[in-house]
């Protein structure tokens, strides 16, 4: 399947939304660059989990990570970590699927928030691509993959914070951290808001501060590359700075 890449500046084109809605994108060559990317198979997958029941959002996240892992991340990283590639795929090849699944994108604001959202940690495709990479790199047995995708979803706030820091973007660190969270029952603690600490900001969570502390100590403490037991000690130390069971 050939994906024609959009030209630079496509987000600033005021006609893009209307032409997408009216199925006229492919009729206007001015939208595209001269670059094409070939991908053997590009199946549909959920791209947005911002609304709905928790069980539905979880199912959609798991489905997206699995499909991306099986069909997209074998492309070079400069392709599947390129927002222009994903926006081009959605605009040129997924119109009918997207309008059927997310009818709210017939509204311009929702279109830009769901289909053309900036490709960073707030974008669900970005989250799922990185999750798919980590799961794939970990070399897990197939029956274990869904377990870890579930753990990522259960700890999405911490995962979102991890992917902001390049040093933590490695499979070993993430899998070890997820194991620690599960073994120590940290999930609910990590999600809790830190109270009575105005110096930390309005919406600080324990898990975020743990990652913050690990990042602050790097490279003196090489937490991204530690074995699980050593990392567990660092996590406990970081958590103890903010959290007390008393």
Automatic annotation (TrEMBL):
Name of the protein this chain belongs to: Uncharacterized protein
Top-rank lineage group of the source organism: Bacteria
């Amino acid at each position: 399947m050939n994906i024609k890449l959009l030209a630079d500046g496509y987000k600033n084109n005021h006609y893009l939304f209307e032409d997408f809605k009216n199925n006229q994108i492919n009729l206007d060559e001015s939208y595209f660059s001269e670059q094409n990317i070939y991908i053997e198979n590009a199946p549909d997958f959920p791209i947005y989990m911002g609304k709905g029941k928790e069980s539905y959002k979880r199912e959609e996240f798991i489905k997206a990570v699995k499909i991306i892992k099986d069909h997209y991340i074998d492309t070079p990283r400069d392709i599947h970590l390129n927002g222009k590639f994903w926006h081009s795929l959605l605009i040129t090849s997924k119109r009918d699927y997207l309008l059927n699944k997310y009818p709210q994108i017939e509204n311009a604001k929702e279109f830009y928030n769901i289909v053309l959202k900036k490709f960073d940690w707030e974008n669900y495709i970005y989250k799922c691509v990185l999750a798919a990479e980590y799961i794939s790199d970990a070399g897990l047995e197939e029956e274990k993959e869904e377990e870890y995708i579930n753990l990522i979803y259960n700890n999405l706030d911490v995962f979102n914070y991890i992917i902001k820091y390049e040093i933590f973007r490695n499979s070993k660190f993430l899998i070890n951290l997820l194991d620690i969270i599960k073994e120590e029952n940290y999930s609910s603690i990590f999600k809790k808001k830190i109270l009575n600490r105005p110096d930390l900001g309005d919406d600080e969570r324990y898990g975020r501060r743990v990652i913050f502390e690990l990042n602050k100590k790097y490279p003196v403490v090489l937490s991204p590359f530690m074995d699980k037991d050593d990392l567990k000690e660092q996590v406990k130390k970081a958590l103890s700075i903010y959290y007390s069971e008393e």
